[in-house]
């Protein structure tokens, strides 16, 4: 019994001596690993500040700029951790960490697939120069002013002041029309005049009114005028012209102004904009019996 305890004690001493020897031998590596970790921490802070300044120049959304800066800092810290483990000759632990990180990343990715897709879509949208805050856009059946783009959603304010929230993924996967990319918009105006009207005079007068109403239209040659069809009660036409505008509201105001001025000019020139008219034609004349009519009136 005494020999067994002595043997166990000697084994314990040998183990402790081995650990102490290993620690002493690895003190330089340990110090170097600590230096690497501390250095990576400060480098991560500097990287975060630098990336934040650079991203803010390209991305107007603060939330997205901050998350990109944080991700860059985390990448630097993780790289420092792996380097420190390699210096400590902990290759097995490093392999285990990598395997665990891969499994955890796969599980998190599957669980948050929708959220992550919206997040990455928000980052992509933020870097697109063709989509900026304040732009008037039309997408997914909605149109309005872009008031916010964050990591989850794309926010529009419609002309009637309603707020529309659209997931970023839908913005990235569907067509988007941006009215603010150019400083000019084309106004389409449809109307009809009576069949008795002088069509050449109608065309001349309409072009003249548009040219005199809008400074952007330099002459009547800049106004497009086309008769489109013989309608039920009028001859219909399409008038098109360009204006300086960047939003649908400005376009609607210009169209309203054009309609008012055209109506005034037509009234002054005696040009009729007819209501829908239906003409009834009877092939056989109605016959009236005078005697029957006299009896009916006398009875009344």
TrEMBL record:
Membrane topology (UniProt): Multi-pass membrane protein
Residues passing through the membrane, by range: 27-46, 67-87
Keywords: Cell membrane, Membrane, Transmembrane, Transmembrane helix
GO cellular component, one term: plasma membrane
UniProt domain Mechanosensitive ion channel MscS: residue ranges: 115-180
SUPFAM superfamilies, per the entry: Mechanosensitive channel protein MscS (YggB), C-terminal domain (SSF82689), Mechanosensitive channel protein MscS (YggB), transmembrane region (SSF82861), Sm-like ribonucleoproteins (SSF50182)
Database matches in Pfam families: MS_channel_2nd (PF00924), MS_channel_3rd (PF21082)
Coiled-coil parts of chain: none
Family: Belongs to the MscS (TC 1.A.23) family.
Descriptive protein name: Mechanosensitive ion channel family protein
Lineage, uppermost ranks: Bacteria, Pseudomonadati, Bacteroidota, Flavobacteriia, Flavobacteriales
């Amino acid at each position: 019994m005494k020999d067994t305890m002595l043997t166990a004690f000697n084994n314990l001493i040998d183990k402790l001596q081995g650990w102490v020897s290993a620690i002493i031998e690895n003190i330089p590596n340990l110090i170097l690993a600590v230096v690497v970790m501390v250095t990576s921490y400060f480098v991560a802070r500097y990287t975060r500040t630098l990336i934040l300044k650079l991203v803010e120049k390209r991305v107007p959304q603060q939330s997205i700029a901050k998350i990109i800066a944080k991700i860059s800092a985390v990448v630097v810290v993780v790289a420092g951790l792996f380097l420190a483990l390699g210096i400590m000759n902990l290759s097995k632990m490093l392999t285990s960490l990598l395997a665990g990180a891969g499994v955890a990343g796969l599980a998190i990715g599957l669980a948050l697939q929708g959220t992550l897709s919206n997040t990455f879509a928000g980052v992509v949208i933020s870097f697109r120069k063709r989509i900026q805050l304040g732009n008037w856009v039309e997408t997914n059946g909605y149109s309005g002013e872009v008031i916010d783009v964050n990591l989850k959603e794309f926010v529009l304010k419609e002309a009637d002041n309603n707020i529309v929230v659209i997931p970023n993924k839908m913005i990235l996967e569907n067509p988007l029309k941006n009215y603010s990319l150019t400083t000019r918009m084309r106004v389409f105006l449809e109307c009809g005049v009576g069949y008795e009207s002088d069509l050449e005079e109608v065309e001349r007068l309409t072009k003249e009114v548009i040219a005199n109403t809008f400074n952007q239209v330099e002459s009547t040659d800049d106004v497009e005028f086309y008769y489109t069809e013989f309608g039920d009660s009028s001859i219909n036409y399409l008038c098109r012209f360009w204006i300086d505008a960047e939003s649908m509201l400005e376009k609607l105001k210009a169209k309203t102004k054009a309609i008012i001025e055209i109506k005034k000019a037509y009234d002054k020139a005696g040009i009729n904009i007819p209501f829908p008219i239906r003409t009834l034609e009877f092939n056989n004349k109605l016959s009236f019996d005078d005697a029957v009519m006299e009896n009916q009136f006398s009875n009344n």
